[in-house]
Write a structure and sequence with these properties.
There is one protein chain. Helix content is about 30%, strand content about 25%. The protein is globular and about 45 Å long. It contains six helices and seven strands; from the N terminus they run H-H-E-H-E-H-E-E-H-E-H-E-E. It has a seven-stranded mixed β-sheet with strand order 3-2-1-4-5-7-6, with helices on both faces.
């Protein structure tokens, strides 16, 4: 698939037509466990390509106070505004991730990296470096497998280490032991610190 096809209308149509096969309908188990270990409820947290935002809902439930979620699909963002209406702890942004400005302590990665065209991966890393404060953390899941035709787009641990290590200190990049059943053995849990 060409990069130009992965635009606002591509993703918006998936939400309008309810063809969101990637949606787990729950918090991804590795991210839930990661969130459970966070103690600072005032972390500035960003979730790009947030989808139905189960992770954001869980963060709110756990008492986190500064969450920003971004997606490019207008229909989804409207739905999220209704879902999280009148909760001042969450900011919902309709925007291309690459246009976003801000400073965050933590970015949660859940199916966003695999949704963008692989040619944009170097730009993703540059943007993450801009959005994360020095010493800020990028944590979440990357697919550790290839796909026939994306999205999703896969990759390998070796490829990711080469991509991220110039800008990030990689603390963890291991096969997730607690993946959602359909994804067992195909996800890497990552935790890395912006240099």
């Amino acid at each position: 698939m060409n990069q130009k096809n992965l635009n606002e209308s591509f993703w918006n149509n998936h939400y309008l037509e309810r063809t969101t096969g990637w949606d787990l309908k729950q918090v991804s188990p590795p991210l839930k466990e990661f969130i459970n270990q966070l103690t600072d409820k005032n972390l500035r947290i960003l979730i790009p390509g947030c989808g139905n935002s189960y992770e954001a809902a869980y963060l709110l439930e756990k008492g986190f106070t500064d969450i920003t979620i971004i997606d490019i699909a207008p229909a989804l963002v409207e739905s999220l505004k209704n879902k999280f209406s009148n909760d001042s702890r969450i900011t919902i942004v309709l925007q291309d991730f690459f246009d976003h400005e801000g400073t965050y302590d933590l970015v949660l990665e859940q199916t966003f990296f695999c949704a963008i065209d692989p040619s944009l991966r170097p730009q993703y890393i540059v943007k993450m470096s801009q959005l994360l404060k020095k010493g800020g953390k990028l944590a979440g899941l990357l697919f550790n497998r290839d796909f026939e035709d994306g999205p999703p787009f896969g990759g390998s641990k070796k490829e990711y280490l080469a991509l991220f290590s110039p800008d990030f200190n990689i603390k963890i990049a291991e096969t997730a032991y607690n993946s959602f059943e359909k994804r067992k053995g195909s996800e890497l849990f990552i935790s890395m610190i912006r240099k």
